[in-house]
Specification:
5-stranded parallel sheet, single chain, alpha/beta, diguanylate cyclase, CheY-like_superfamily, Rossmann fold, Sig_transdc_resp-reg_receiver, 4 domains
Length: 528
């Protein structure tokens, strides 16, 4: 909150659109960090601030009007933060209740704003074809055959992302990259879209602020993956850091700094306490002191590295010992980095955030199913087992669901396996956008998915899955010049109250079978 106030005060004082972008970036970062929780009023305020900033960046409103709008919204945030408890931070006790709308028949797929994608490509046939395919993945897409044509439309509506062809008639590549630079300055994300693959072009793209590079031809699934990555459409949550340091003043200081950087931090001065907490907290990074009473930080690192669960979790030492031998010993024990305590604190935080981003990207790559974007079989089973143990230990709710696409073999036989891949990918995208970041989604095998609903009863899960089922049944797919729709069936079981994970999966399978036998396109809760 302090960061937002500071950034807005500076942008307001200077009346600068350039300073507006970092403020808007942090507003979006905060919005993503609270997306895990059902804080609807807070999310709406942040959304309104972002919308006002976007309007100013595309010059629909002037700075004077923007200041009036954002001042009112920031004052609302500040006023609520001074109350105890903060009313904006009180969660809805029904985590799966959807925001009420005027039309209660709207499905989950229609309630969220579709990201707006623009394709600028002089090759009309391929450009329009790609636009149509992207549109099938729940994006709003427009196609333009020139920068000039796009410019006219951009006066009234700003896209989230532009796929920009580099080589176009009567426009040099230098002019294209100059235009890309102007788009990025307005807050529009740009991806180069070309058949050229040269270092010179890539370097020019990077210098223009282009975020990614698509080489023609690329499969539609590859394009969607890049769009999702650039727009950060995969569900995100706050980074989790466990920090162990016997100096409480040091621990509290860095805990505060990391929390201001939107990290969730568990600090402890005790190694034993840390290991008791680690299964419940499931950190993304361990931050350790090197020398502590009764235990050596190097020994702690070795214990962490013995657990397969944390193979991809970075271990970073924050130490006053700057000897080369100490750093080498830390690396030999499985640490990823050693940072001196004499390093400026904000630089320490920057290094940790960078390390977290890279580590989670690697973990994401090895844990996700390439086609659907959800967890692979091994990872979803591990997540389900951890959720089962946690629910039993904390006596909390948890449910799992087995989901299977109806008549999937018929889709493959009629339209081909590429059409089947499109259906699987579409369902994976929908599930990823519809569930909370605290839940888990994985491809169990073939056309089967396993879902883990953390903190939810089977009845809660039933409501949510039925919303997703309706949304999926309305999705259009196209293959061989024909359009078709698909449905899925699912079975839900109480995970927390079950005797074991395999037993729970077996019961979810039985409930799924009952849904199939009952006519498909339905969800049932297991009943003995």
């Amino acid at each position: 909150m302090k960061i937002l106030i500071s950034l807005w005060a500076e942008a307001r004082k200077q009346k600068s659109l350039a300073l507006l972008e970092p403020f808007r970036y942090n507003v979006n970062a905060l919005a993503q960090s609270v997306a895990t929780f059902t804080l609807f009023t807070l999310q709406q305020i942040l959304s309104d601030i972002n919308g006002a900033c976007e309007s100013a960046l595309i010059k629909k409103i002037d700075m004077k009007e923007l200041i009036v709008m954002v001042d009112a919204l920031m004052n609302e945030l500040i006023a609520n933060s001074n109350q105890d408890p903060n009313p904006l931070l009180i969660e809805n006790d029904k985590p799966f209740d959807m925001l009420e709308s005027k039309d209660n028949t709207k499905t989950a797929g229609k309630q969220a704003r579709k990201p707006y994608i623009v394709i600028v490509d002089d090759e009309k046939s391929s450009g329009m074809a790609v636009a149509a395919l992207i549109g099938e993945f729940n994006f709003q897409v427009d196609y333009f055959d020139s920068i000039k044509a796009f410019n006219k439309a951009a006066e009234t509506k700003q896209p989230d992302l532009v796929l920009l062809d580099i080589m176009m008639p009567e426009t040099s590549s230098e002019q294209v990259f100059d235009y890309a630079s102007k788009l990025t300055q307005r807050g529009v994300k740009v991806v180069s879209y070309s058949s050229l693959f040269s270092l010179e072009m890539r370097l020019a793209a990077v210098r223009a602020g282009v975020l990614d590079f698509i080489v023609k031809p690329m499969s539609i699934l590859g394009i969607i993956e890049k769009i999702n990555r650039v727009l950060h459409l995969q569900k995100t949550r706050a980074y989790r850091v466990i920090f162990v340091d016997d100096q409480e003043s040091m621990g509290e200081f860095y805990q505060t700094l990391l929390e201001e950087a939107d990290c969730e931090v568990y600090y402890s001065s005790s190694v034993e306490d840390m290991f008791n907490k680690v299964d419940d907290f499931y950190p993304d990074l361990f931050l350790l002191d090197m020398n502590m009473p009764d235990v050596n930080g190097l020994e702690v690192a070795k214990i962490i590295r013995q657990q397969k669960l944390f193979d991809f979790t970075p271990i970073v030492f924050l130490t006053a010992d700057e000897q080369l031998e100490t750093k080498l010993a830390a690396l030999n024990c499985g640490a990823d980095d050693v940072i001196s305590k004499s390093t400026p604190p904000m630089l320490v935080v920057k290094q940790l955030i960078t390390r977290l981003g890279r580590a989670l990207a690697v973990k994401d790559f090895v844990s996700k199913d390439a086609l659907t974007g959800v967890l692979n079989h091994g990872q979803i089973m591990e997540a389900a087992l951890n959720s089962y143990r946690l629910s039993r230990r904390q006596e909390s709710d948890a449910s799992i669901a087995m989901l299977d696409i109806d008549h999937f073999k018929l889709v493959n036989d009629t339209f081909g396996h590429s059409a089947g891949d499109k259906v699987l990918s579409g369902l994976g995208q929908l599930l990823g956008r519809s569930l909370r970041t605290t839940d888990y989604i994985g491809r169990y095998g073939g056309e089967e998915f396993l879902l883990v609903f953390v903190g939810a009863t089977p009845s809660d899960a039933l409501v949510k899955l039925n919303q997703i089922r309706l949304a999926f049944s309305e999705m259009d797919f196209e293959a061989k010049g024909r359009r078709f729709k698909c449905t899925f069936s699912a079975g839900i079981v109480d995970l927390a109250g079950n005797s074991s994970l395999p037993h729970a999966i077996n019961e979810a399978d039985q409930a799924l079978y009952a849904s199939k036998e009952g006519g498909r396109n339905q969800v049932k809760i297991f009943s003995s």
